[in-house]
TrEMBL record:
Pfam families: Usp (PF00582). This is Universal stress protein. Residues 1-137, 159-290 form the UspA domain. Gene3D superfamilies: HUPs (3.40.50.620). InterPro entries: Rossmann-like_a/b/a_fold (IPR014729), Universal_stress_UspA (IPR006015), UspA (IPR006016). Belongs to the universal stress protein A family. It comes from the Bacteria.
Length: 292
């Protein structure tokens, strides 16, 4: 089944940046673009006209249709559909993501440099969506997708399946853009008490800690290299925390791809620390990919 690229729109500067990014990606992949806006009627007794649900809904539909028309003209041949989804924002966007190749959302940059202000809505959508969610900051420019900029993806875990979904998304995106994949694996020295005769033997057989990490990365990349033989790959192995190592190469990225490890707490869903850190500090768009 062919899924569209879906983008959440609300008329803000950041959602317009997300719309442009999603349209360019849809053209590259030969997919339809679906523009959605979550809406819930809010009565206002001070303004009678706003107290009419049909009037409010009509204004929302017109705004979404206008944005879709502009982007369709800008990208000739792109098929664009629109939907106004009545209900809570999180619920509507999570549902929209379920039938999409990816969900694209806008996020405000913070500070004099770059980054994201990830509100509760964005965090909940990322934590609950079953498809990849891409965050695009306000002011994102197509020039950031120029030749030479890489698709940076984090790889972690001992089992190649641990990062399969994130790696797959990165390779598919790189193939569509003619870009290089930089696969990043960060590692740290394990605590002394974690060693055992069995683990020491495995480390000796692999030639030490760093060669063992390189071997793990190569094993994870092998099926994707076979599937996408024309995509150049850079293996990046560095000692340090995963978030810090990923952010150290963010300047060369046109897109950062990280896996999601969502967990539920008493105050709601939370995403993993690596995704959280990258989302708040990376200057490029960030894709958060749930496990397969």
């Amino acid at each position: 089944m062919t899924r569209p690229i879906t983008v959440g729109f609300d008329g803000t500067e950041e959602s317009l940046a997300a719309l442009d990014w999603a349209a360019r990606e849809a053209v590259r992949r030969g997919l339809e673009l679906r523009v959605v806006q979550a809406w819930r009627f809010q009565a206002d007794v001070a303004l009678d006209v706003l107290s009419d649900p049909e009037t409010q809904a009509g204004w929302v539909r017109d705004a979404v249709a206008e944005a879709a028309e502009v982007v369709a003209v800008r990208h000739h041949g792109l098929v664009v559909t629109t939907d106004v989804l009545e209900g809570g924002t999180v619920e509507a966007l999570v549902e929209a993501a379920a039938g999409a190749e990816m969900l694209v959302l806008g996020s405000r940059g913070h500070g004099p440099v770059v980054g994201f202000l990830l509100g509760s809505v964005g965090q909940q959508v990322i934590a609950e969506a079953v498809r990849p969610v891409v965050l695009v900051r306000a002011g994102d420019e197509p020039t950031a997708e120029a030749a030479g900029r890489e698709i940076v993806v984090g790889q972690q875990g001992e089992d190649p399946e641990d990062s399969a979904a994130a790696l797959g998304f990165a390779f598919e995106t790189a193939a569509a853009r003619g870009a290089t994949v930089r696969a990043v694996r960060a590692w740290t020295l394990p605590p002394v008490f974690a060693y055992s005769p069995g683990s020491l033997k495995l480390l000796d057989e692999a030639g030490g800690l760093e060669p063992r990490e390189k071997q793990a990365l190569q094993s994870a990349l092998e099926p994707w290299r076979e599937r996408f033989p024309d995509v150049p790959v850079v293996e990046h192995i560095e000692m340090g925390s995963a978030g810090q190592v990923l952010l150290s190469v963010a300047a060369r990225a046109q897109l950062m791809v990280v896996g999601r490890r969502a967990r539920r707490t008493a105050v709601g869903a939370r995403i993993g620390s690596v995704a959280h850190g990258v989302l708040h500090h990376a200057g490029c768009p960030v894709a958060v990919v749930p496990p397969a």
